[in-house]
Amino acid sequence: MKCVQDIDVPAPDCSSPALFEFRSGCCPRQECPANHFPVFVRSGAANMVGPKICFNNQIAMSVGKDNVGIGLNIVLVNGETGEISKSKNFNNNTAELLDFLKTVVKGDLVLLASYEDPAAELTDEIREIFAELGSSVIHSVKYRDSWVFAGATGLEKECLFEKLIVNDQEKNVYGDWPEMVELSGCIPRKI
Question: Under a CB-based contact definition with an 8 Å cutoff, are residues 84 and 76 in contact?
Fold first, then answer.
């Protein structure tokens, strides 16, 4: 079973009154093939706009839910049922992040959105865990980069979602920070 990244569905106008019900949810709303879940992950922007993580067209983490913060924002999902099992923000607590990541079992989906500075949490051991979950850029994530990730143990390499925009003072959109980064698509149900 393959993933469908950045699916070709016209993006709706999220300000349209006809889409009022989606404004409180995850816009753009996505339709996926059978046995796939829609995923939308957006990093924060600078230290001003918080990140957003949506799974199955429902908000899991956002500023509006008051459950995101600086650092790493992570959602664990049961890949078979689609039930969100945990969500948490990690900022300057690598021991707690390590304990959280050690609870990931085969079949769990891991969704991540950075905000302001993801690298502060990333010890060598934590980077190795993300590599095992399929991250191909984890060893490149540095100070104030914008990083989003969706992965799991046991997913095929081409199924993984990940984007990184590096902090580059000459190219940054927001002074000391790069622009926000987002990914969307359909990730397979682990059945």
Answer: yes
Pairing of strands 36-42, 4-5: unpaired
Structural element, H or E, at residue 40: strand 36-42
Strands (E), 6-70: 36-42, 52-55, 58-61
- The Cα-based distances of 110 to 22, 75, 78 in angstroms read 24, 6, 9
Q: How far apart are CA 33 and CA 5, in angstroms?
A: 12
* Distance separating alpha carbons of residues 32 and 155, to the nearest angstrom: 17
**CB-neighbour burial class of residue 167 (10 A; exposed 0-12, middle 13-18, buried 19+):** middle
All structural domains of the chain with their residue ranges: 4-188
Reported as a single tens digit per residue, the pLDDT across 39-54 is 999 999 888 889 999 9
Provide the whole-model pTM: 0.85
